[in-house]
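Work Package 3 (structural annotation) set out to generate three-dimensional models for the target panel prioritized at the project kickoff. During this period the team completed the workflow that converts sequence records into discrete structure tokens, so that structures can be stored uniformly alongside our sequence database. As a representative example, we reproduce one entry of 98 residues exactly as it appears in the project archive.
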Amino acid sequence: MLIAARTVLQSSYSREVEASADGYAVDLMGQAEGDPRALGTILMRIAGSSHGPLKILLDHPETKDRVAAINAMARPGPIKPLLDKTEWTDVKHICSGS
């Protein structure tokens, strides 16, 4: 029982930290005039389907909840690409390992 209680408390703390990090990322993207909603898009690509039924034990907020919070925090305004076409091609090349 003690281990389960500790797990729940640590999971809750981790979820709070993750939510704070998401907020920080949204603010940074806004300052750079990038699209803060892109973080939500990436999270959905990574996570795929939602988590199982034991949400209380998750150490991160559920992806759909994170995306909803990110979209709610994102301010409307000008959005500009953070990389030009050549830079984006270079990043994809690096990530492919070629």
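Helices lie at 2-31, 37-47, 63-73, 85-96.
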